[in-house]
Amino acid sequence: MNDLITDIKSLELETIKNLRNSKSANTLRAYQSDYNDFSLFCSKNGFQAMPTQPKILALYITHLSSYSKYSTLKRRLASISILHKTKGHYIDTKHPIIMENLMGIKRTNGSNQKGKKPLLINDLKVLINAIHQSNEKDNRKIRDKALVLIGFSGGFRRSELVDIEYEDLEFVSEGVKIFVKRSKTDQSGEGMTKAIPYFDSEKFCPVNALKNWIEIFDLKKGKIFDISDKSVALIIKKYANYAGLDSHRYAGHSLRSGFATSTAESGAEERNIMAMTGHKSTEMVRRYIKEANLFKNNALNKIKL
Questions:
Q1: Which helix (H) or strand (E) holds 193?
Q2: Are strands 175-180 and 169-172 parallel, antiparallel or unpaired?
Q3: CA-CA-CA-CA torsion sign (271, 273, 276, 280)
Q4: Strand partners of residue 274
Q5: Percent of the chain with pLDDT over 90
Q6: Given a cut of 50, is residue 218 above it in pLDDT?
Q7: Per the CB 3.0–4.6 Å rule, which of 77, 102, 228, 240 could disulfide with 247?
Q8: Cα–Cα distance measured from residue 32 to residue 79, given in angstroms and rounded to the nearest whole number
Q9: Going edge to edge, which strands form the sheet with 175-180?
Q10: Which residues form the catalytic set?
Q11: DSSP secondary-structure letter at 237?
Q12: Are 164 and 182 contacting, i.e. CB atoms less than 8 angstroms apart?
């Protein structure tokens, strides 16, 4: 009997370990950060945070709704649910008191999510010119130029961009193939390959910029851009500010959204955009396409004044 109890406990521990391993370290850190905010709310109000109850969650999202976006409420709920699962608890985030509360908040506050501005082609050129003209050291300029151009042309997430290693690159006559080992939507680690061709313009060619960075600094192994994902956003903001752009409107995601919006504006098909970005659903990609077509397919274009 004692052996059976020991076996069950071992299975429970192994199951919890598997739940944790199903997510990347960055994702788990984000979940923990969200949960910490909920835990603080519970502590201040005398509630139990783990395990919690649907009523407490409903009170928490009402509290959040006074200063947070609707998307933040949904994310916090998901994080709290996941953290409960990793501890062996279950919380019904679909409980009527939570769902009805969310619907009421949505009707009252709306759910429009205003993200960071995409870095479109003209902005990209301005940013690259700013890198050339900046007072940064030459090695920093060369790295940052390669980082920005590769990040944009590959539609990379920040985490994917900083995880690129020398072994993931294959230069071919058409350009460069970059193997992405793992991404936000590929937690099982199957990986995908992004192909970036040579551009006509030497100045704005991501392949040549990457080659230049690798050759000049004789990179033979390890990470190509040995920086944190947060540093990507800081680099974009720095050069945006130097170029006279509103740096508050840009971040690391501006490279990815800029790629999707710019290619959609140029007429690229939805499936081809998704093949590069790695999006699993069409929802976000169609949002980029809608943004790109605001003026292109505008009914006012038919009016001649």
A1: strand 192-197
A2: antiparallel
A3: negative
A4: none
A5: 54
A6: yes
A7: 240
A8: 7
A9: 169-172, 175-180, 192-197
A10: 157, 184, 253, 256, 279, 288
A11: H
A12: no
